[in-house]
Input
Amino acid sequence: MTDAAHDVTSSPEPSRSLIGLIGRSMAVALATAAVAVLCLVGLNALAVSLDDEPLRRALAESLDRETGAISDSPEAFNDCLIPVMTLLDDGRFVERIVTAQRVYRLERPHQPCRALEQVIKRGDIDREEYVAVFYHQYWVGHRLLMKTLVPTFGVSGVRSVFWWSTFGLLAGGLVWSVRRVAIVGLRSPEVFSPLAQALLIASFLLFHDLWNRAASFTSAPSNLLIFAVLLVGPLVPLRAWSTSRGAVVLATLGALVAYFDLLFGAVLIGFVCLLASISLSPASGRQQPLALWYQQPRLRALLAGSSAYVVGFLATMLLHVVVADLVFEQNVLAFFWDQLSFRLQGGQRTTLPEEINVMFDHEPTISRMVSRLGERLGVIGFGSVTVGGSLLVLSGIAHVFAATWIWRRRSDRDFEWFRLLGLLLSSLAIVAWYVIFLEHTLVHARLMVRLLSWNIGIAAVLTSALVLARAPKRGTRESGVR
Output
């Protein structure tokens, strides 16, 4: 991601070049997403063309066990739904390549694990009990992993691979970042980045419910992608994020996250990890005064990098809808918008079978969403709602103090204003997601409350910045986060 020839931070027209930088990043990301979609369609074609029987036998073996069955999971709903979507073979071959099918039970509860058992033992769902619908809003890239990994390692084996890979990645990153802290020393101006990285990794390990969900078929693939960003990102030179090559890499990341995303926060955690990575990246040279904000290399990198990632993700999702609209003889765009708008603000769906639409007819409110999240705070509080709530209160206090401190030092040329601002905004992005995807947060509160682990981690990082700012640095009489 080092492409100095395309770095425009020294342009003679900085305000115009900032817009041009963002536009170029978005254009490169769009082109990258188009290529990625072709590759992802090819992967889907491979998944659909592989024989179903090895997967069916491996799933059948897991059903016969008292423990280790695919339904034996904190995310049993989706962990059962994914293999159903992999095995259902309604429609033409090209249709199954583009879009997977999901099942709805004609009465509550939905019981996808029951549907999976029917598919395994009978070869199909009970059509009087369930209805299958092409699910156009997701790629469901998990189908390829199901067809390739489960027959080889079994359900328990794949879960072990996911669990050990997740914790091995994070533990290795934690050890590496703590080692860097020990090497540079707490009084060094360079200590903040590895210390912040260690705190964020520790927050994921402690508060993100990974002990229960690291082995999940639903979230493990995207988790591994995102955690790798948090480990590698802070080591990337700052100027690399705003290059064309950087845009290609970040758009590819966005496309891969889209391939596995089921809207349970993977794209958001990827986004905030990216903001943190850019905020912690090493910079060279003296930063400009705040009045020349458009010349700030870190701000330029934040805007260019986040634009490339977001465009890569959105374009991959929307191009999937475009391809589906060409393949299916129906208005797929209307289906996609109906599903998306329901996740945003609720209301009755209109594009599902009539008997299913009435199951999703309610109006969510912010107060209900907050109440539901509050009831699930034990997920981030070691099983205790009180502990979880206390952690959030302390985190909120830390955010307020940090925001005030950052604002007061805005005129200090030696203060890395945009470094801390990027971290603070990444925390606010979690809250914004909850409000925007109101219905989805309300319904899936137990899953979505895990995202608050990021706010706790950022609070710890901002607190460490406040402490380090008051401590004299080695070899100087000055203090501050550099």
The radius of gyration is 23 Å.
